[in-house]
Amino acid sequence: MQNQSINISKNWAPRFFAVWGGQAFSLFGSALVQFALVWYLARETGSATVLAMATLVSLLPNIFLGPFIGALVDRWNRRLIMIVADSSIAASTLGLVWLFATGRVEVWHVYVILIIRALGSAFHQPAMTSSTSLMVPNKHLARISGANQTLQGLITIFAPPLGALLIEAISTHNVLLIDVGTAALAVLPLLFIPIPQPIRQPQPDGQAQRPSYWQDLGAGFTYVRNWRGLLGLIILTMALNFVLSPAAALLPLVVTKVFEKGALELGWVQSLLGVGIIAGGITLGVWGGFKRRIVTSLMGILGIGIGILLIGIVPTGLFPLLLVTMFLTGFAQVFANGPLGAIMQSAIAPEMQGRVFSLLRAGATAMMPLSLLISGPVSDYLGIRVWFIFGGVATILMAIAASFISAIMNIESNRGQTGQEEPSSTASAVPVE
């Protein structure tokens, strides 16, 4: 395992969780901002097109720039990347605060801020993800992934209602100021805690490699292409995003049109999903999953498929069963995503992680608008729940098919079988002060 060859201090936890805690506050602040901006656009324009455009501009930086950003993350100091990214997001939000406070804000201002925030996230996320494997022992990576999933569940449950309450109590621009404060909490630990940097493998003459940016970029694509197990997992992730992304967009219509329920019941459905994520995150954090993480992940994917399929076939008179299904889907989601992230963090060479994670994120994100463009007309023509049935069955079949692909099942031990040079067999990491 890659992570096992790295000298990680026994007192890794205080340092890592100081950084992780700051990032957790920042994520919660970002969720409040996201809610506030969407609410502003909905209230001021009442336009579905405007809301769709806001979603699109938030995705574009990751889709088009993600593959190019990854090479920079692997070349530059990852701690500085996170500091600059968080600070840039906070500065852009501060500018928006001024526009709101002075009554000068316009829709296009919001679009610009959303793009800046998405660009900062495109740098920040792979930098943080690729740093985790250099700060956390390999045996704890799945538990950290479980903690991340729990955090996402908490944000899913509490950020929207809290955002709505704060907007009424202290106005939109003051809600945005909260994000500036939480960004400062994220940056502060990074100013004092070193983040390990991977050391590039030396050339045969003993000199450290320093290829050009374009060589680094090409090396990232080659690394993924030559490693069949990793390539298979990336393709699997993209396919899952394609069939599952429309579920979130279509779920309100399932509640209101199929089950003929109102906003309160929709809130219950979304809350039960978040509660399931939290329960799954706690369970994974305590248990850690099976020894072979890929088994845990595929079981989670299978569980998601069953949950999505059930949403498509639950009788309309059994709304409580829909709530149970949402809980189980959220629970399974943790066991799909958590171990998968841990697999990649532990197996991918540290000096390649920025590129690989950026490629993965770009590919997965690109599937979202594509699937929404297709699922909308299909659901209008064939029925809202048809896509849930299709997506559930497809997810189940993909989980089963992946279990018969040896390159995927042995991904935690098969990188040396690709025929490529093993660049990370002696990889190490040093803290950067």
Q: In CATH, what is the homologous superfamily of the largest domain?
A: MFS general substrate transporter like domains
In round numbers, the mean pLDDT is 83
Can you tell me the CATH architecture of the largest domain? Up-down Bundle
Structural class: mainly alpha
Tertiary shape: globular
Write the layout of secondary structure elements.
Layout: H1 12-45, H2 48-75, H3 78-101, H4 107-135, H5 141-170, H6 172-192, E1 195-198, H7 213-226, H8 228-258, H9 263-287, H10 293-313, H11 319-347, H12 353-382, H13 386-402, H14 406-409, E2 429-432
Antiparallel strand pairs: 1-2
Helix pairs in contact: 1-2, 1-4, 1-5, 1-6, 2-4, 2-7, 2-12, 3-4, 3-6, 4-12, 5-6, 5-9, 5-11, 8-9, 8-12, 8-13, 9-11, 10-11, 10-13
Overview of the structural elements:
The protein has 433 residues and is mainly alpha-helical. The protein has two domains: 11-196, Growth Hormone, Chain: A (Up-down Bundle); 225-417, Growth Hormone, Chain: A (Up-down Bundle), CATH 1.20.1250. Helices cover 78% and strands 2% of the residues. It has 14 helices and two strands. It has helices spanning 12-45, 48-75, 78-101, 107-135, 141-170, 172-192, 213-226, 228-258, 263-287, 293-313, 319-347, 353-382, 386-402, 406-409, and strands at residues 195-198, 429-432.
